[in-house]
Specification:
Layout lengths: L20 E2 L11 E5 L25 E5 L1 E5 L3 E5 L1 H12 L7 E5 L9 E9 L2 E8 L1 H8 L5 E7 L14 E8 L11 E2 L7 H28 L4 H15 L6 H22 L8 E6 L11 E6 L1 H38 L2 H4 L3 H8 L11 H26 L17 H14 L17 H13 L1 H13 L5 H4 L3 H13 L8 E4 L6 E9 L21 E9 L1 E10 L13 H33 L3 E7 L10 E3 L9 E4 L5 E6 L3 E4 L2 E3 L12 E7 L4 E6 L14 E6 L3 E5 L8 H23 L5 E4 L1 H7 L15 E2 L5 E4 L2 E5 L11 E5 L5 E10 L3 E4 L5 E16 L8 E7 L1 H6 L2
Parallel strand pairs: 6-10, 14-33, 27-36, 28-31
Antiparallel strand pairs: 1-11, 2-9, 3-8, 4-5, 6-7, 7-8, 9-10, 12-13, 15-16, 17-35, 18-26, 19-25, 20-21, 22-23, 22-26, 24-25, 28-32, 29-30, 30-31, 32-36, 33-35, 34-35
């Protein structure tokens, strides 16, 4: 019987399968709000289908468009973007069932009235989010009878579950059918006829098609039996009929004609062979085109064997595949033409990334039917829009909220850079300016340029005004601006100018000003491709072994208070800038900020490295060390993993601490010393050296304490094992230079461990200048023993070890100390600046008696997150270079 029949009235997916309706949804991302956004209709969208398809593919549902990439506006939420990364975030949470239940669609946002449908699957396809929906009769009625043609998606931008209270990012938790959409140019909800093609209806269609074929087949069998043919001959004729009928679908006229030809063939065979068994070729009559004046009508008989029929079927499938391939190629060429025209435009290049993405998303409306001229016209329209967007962005940056039609000639003047050049020129002529780096913009690292660009965006109006004032005569006043914003920019520039650790991390900006930020990362799943990528016909194709994921990072404030004397406030009695004082303050404050950032970045990378595979030591007995004369506790195992506790902006702990340290002295659990000097009187602990396992007991002022053990004295901590140790203790009859060659061999072993066990190629080695200098004494760096891949810089510092670039730390108090070398892959840690560093207006300082001290106080703050996703911890490792004798005698 025919098993390749399908109804021609229903749309079909590439690869087969039916769907009940088109379903567009949409979503946006904000902090921390709940959104309902509508999707508009597009009545011109259609699918082209053919007559026959494979029954196996018919079992799948047709995908529906859920949302698209773009930038939008709504008066309730303002401007919002839907970037491609958020589509992946939605899919991830849907597949993980983060919301904890099925996702339903209701009518008019009234879930109490019942479900209109259930979203059964989500996936990302380029700039589109696709899904399958199971509609209920209630939903089909609302669409077809009550006019609910659009959807309003409901989601939370940063869903926090009510069990673990953990943030998961954007989660779609429903949608409502509506009649007033906000989002434009999305597909409407279009129900096919009959509405809701579920399994029962599909079975019904197949059954009807099969009955139609059976009707003519039974008539054929009856006529063949009346001719007195042998059953073997009848079976061959019937089989030929069935093979050809599979290609005719529900065309009753064609089926009837085929049955008549087969019956005529049976009549000829009956006259030729009678009732004898035989093997026969089946003849199918095919009419040629009607007669013309030059060509009379003819007919031709063609003998079709089973192989002929199979070949005809294969040819038809090939023609369909070739047509699809040609259409796909044309579509790709048209979209490439569109993107090339836009990306070559200076107006588009000048736009921010979200705006560029919005314009480029215009390619979504291009179809394979577009001509090259039509694509050119569409690109020209988008380029005009790009110019308008650039003008609007420029005006908004200058603080002008104009309305109506605007046109501005955008010159080459760049206020931030112009102001910076003016400041640098004035500082260069002072003694204080000689200590500054005064790095040009094009010489800064990519991360530094990104942070300064965000600062310039936020402070564009003030930067432009200060540039004008300096150009007019070089005077300004604290009465107008407090600390000039140009000064703050210069401090940031100096802090980041030679901060080499920025080259090791991924620097991002997130202007959404949310309490959390989503950190993208890639995860490689080694060995996840089954059968080495060999896939047989009709089998599932495995996904790529690299997956794009997101992790939630909490934003914290980095604040710094500065006391500035009136003599160094940058301004004299006559409000003329004192550029020497200006330069000295830039140098000192820039150095402080640089040290803060460097310390936080380095410590977080070391913490992530140590946390990987850490081993917990519970209630280690330290009573023997507390003799009444020692304040230092040495753990039996080392190094110690720095604990990690996530906090929100209000200082509330989020989740449980990782790798906590617990110190108990004489039955009392001690708190960690915070260095504020304001803790209540008592004994506290402070980790003096994570590398060597040193914990110091101090009082609230940081003064060492020497208790005597009288009851339980224990310490619980985690030992880092993702490392190797090298003892600097010099063996007998060994020179220091030769001994240090062993340290370089250990270094090479850590590199090999990353490369062979974790498929990670480390590209930096972070260490202190002291350790850097120590290793340069290795014999391997002598000219006569030099080895490829390891060399020194012109001033004698390490340039590379085993082909890995050496990078020195530039701040005191970093956990690496003078014992640790951290190896890793650049970009593993993400440093996200949500709000750039800004120093507020100075205010008068007073002494203990409330009297002024002729000083000013100002404080600055930066909102940022510093985060390594836990799956990326294995991208770091380290080694410790220490002296075992020095650790033994330490007190």
């Amino acid at each position: 019987m025919a098993d390749n029949i399908r109804p021609a009235c229903l749309p079909q997916l590439p690869g087969g399968g039916f769907a009940s309706a088109w379903l567009p949804l949409t979503r946006a991302r904000f902090f921390p709000r709940h959104f309902r956004l509508e999707a508009p209709a597009d009545p011109n969208r259609r699918r082209v289908i053919s007559v026959a398809f494979d029954r196996k593919l018919a079992e799948s549902n047709k995908p529906v468009t859920i949302t698209r990439v773009g930038s939008f506006y709504d008066q309730r939420y303002g401007d919002f973007d839907i970037p491609p990364t958020l589509l992946a975030e939605m899919v991830r949470n849907f597949n993980a069932r983060t919301y904890g239940q099925d996702i339903f669609i209701d009518v008019a946002h009234r879930p109490e009235d019942g479900a209109a449908g259930k979203i059964t699957r989500l996936w990302q396809d380029g700039d589109r989010l696709l899904g399958n929906v199971d509609w209920t009769p209630y939903g089909r009625n609302a669409i077809s009878q009550r006019g609910y043609q659009y959807l309003s998606a409901e989601f939370i931008d940063n869903y926090i579950d009510n069990e673990q209270k953990r943030a998961h990012g954007a989660v779609l938790f429903g949608a409502g059918l509506t009649i007033r959409p906000v989002i434009k140019r999305l597909d409407p909800v279009q129900l096919a006829e009959p509405v809701g093609f579920h399994h029962d209806l599909k079975t019904q269609f197949v059954k009807e098609a099969r009955n139609l074929m059976n009707k003519h087949l039974q008539a054929l069998i009856k006529r063949l039996s009346e001719l007195g043919l042998d059953q073997s001959v009848i079976d061959q004729i019937v089989k030929g009929f069935e093979n050809v009928a599979k290609t005719l679908g529900e065309d009753e006229t064609a089926l009837k004609s085929l049955a008549e030809q087969m019956a005529e063939t049976g009549k000829i065979l009956a006259e030729a062979i009678g009732a004898k068994p035989a093997t026969v070729n089946l003849t199918v009559q095919a009419s040629k085109p009607a007669a013309s004046e030059t060509q009379p009508a003819t007919s031709e008989s063609k003998t079709l064997t089973e192989d002929d029929i199979r070949r005809l079927w294969a040819d038809e499938r090939k023609r369909e595949a070739d047509t699809l391939a040609a259409s796909t190629k044309t579509l790709a060429e048209r979209k490439t033409q569109f993107r090339t025209l836009l990306e070559a435009s200076e107006s588009v290049k000048a736009l921010a990334e979200p705006q560029r993405a919005t314009l480029l998303a215009g390619e979504a409306i291009i179809t394979a039917g577009f001509t090259a001229d039509q694509v050119d016209a569409l690109a020209k329209q988008h380029l005009q829009l790009a110019e308008q967007m650039a003008v609007a962005a420029k005006l908004a940056a200058l603080g002008w909220q104009g309305k109506g039609s605007m046109h501005v000639e955008m010159g080459s003047d760049n206020s931030p850079l112009k102001l910076q050049e003016q400041i640098d020129q004035r500082m260069k002529a002072t003694a204080g300016g000689q200590k500054l780096k005064l790095t040009a913009a094009d010489k800064l690292s990519a991360g530094a340029r990104l942070i300064l660009a965000e600062f310039d965006r936020v402070n564009a109006l003030r930067l432009a005004e200060e540039a004008r004032l300096l150009a007019d005569g070089g005077t300004t006043s604290t009465l107008n601006f407090g600390l000039p914003v140009g000064y703050v920019r210069t401090v940031i520039r100096e802090a980041l100018a030679d901060l080499r650790i920025l080259e090791l991390v991924s620097v991002r900006t997130d202007p959404n000003n949310g309490a959390v930020t989503m950190v993208p990362y890639e995860e490689r799943k080694a060995g996840s491709i089954l059968n080495d990528g060999i896939v047989f016909e009709g089998k599932e194709i495995p996904r790529a072994s690299i997956t794009q994921l997101f992790d939630t990072a909490y934003v914290n404030q980095m604040k710094l208070s500065l006391k500035i004397t009136n003599e160094a406030i940058h301004f004299s009695q006559h409000s003329i800038i004192d550029w020497d004082a200006y330069a000295r303050n830039v140098e000192s404050n820039g150095r402080i900020i640089q040290e803060l950032v460097a310390r936080r970045l380095a410590n977080e990378m070391q913490r992530a490295a140590d946390a990987y595979g850490a081993v917990v030591h519970t209630a280690e007995n330290i009573a023997a060390q507390l003799t009444g004369s020692k304040s230092l506790i040495k753990t039996s195992a080392f190094p110690i993993v720095r604990p990690r506790q996530v906090f929100d902006l209000r200082g509330n702990a989020v989740g449980s601490p990782e790798n906590p340290i617990t110190v108990i002295v004489n039955g009392t659990t001690l708190s960690a010393y915070d260095g504020s000097g304001t803790q209540t009187a008592g004994t506290y602990y402070v980790v003096e050296n994570y590398n060597l396992g040193f914990i110091r007991l101090v009082n609230q002022l940081g003064v060492p304490q020497t208790p005597t053990a009288s009851s339980a004295c224990t310490v619980t901590y985690s030992e880092a094992v993702n490392l190797s140790k090298f003892d600097l203790k010099l063996p007998a009859s060994t020179t220091l230079e030769d001994h240090l060659n062993g340290a370089l061999r250990v270094f090479g072993a850590r590199k090999a461990a990353l490369l062979s066990d974790r498929y990670i190629l480390p590209d930096f080695a972070l260490m202190s200048p002291v350790l850097n200098d120590t290793l340069t004494n290795a014999r391997q760096f002598a000219a006569e023993a030099a080895r490829a891949g390891s060399n020194l810089t012109g001033v004698g510092d390490l340039a590379t070890i085993k082909g890995i670039t050496g990078v020195g730390t530039t701040a005191p108090g970093i956990d690496l100390g003078d014992e640790r070398i951290l190896l890793g892959q650049r970009g593993t840690l993400t440093y996200t600046v949500v709000k750039p560093f800004v120093i507020g207006t100075p205010f008068e300082a007073v002494g203990p008696n409330g009297l002024p001290t002729a000083e000013k106080i100002a404080y600055g703050e930066e909102y940022n997150s510093i985060h390594v996703p836990k799956p990326l911890y294995p991208r770091f490792t380290s080694m410790i270079v220490y002296d075992s004798d020095a650790r033994t005698v330490a007190v």
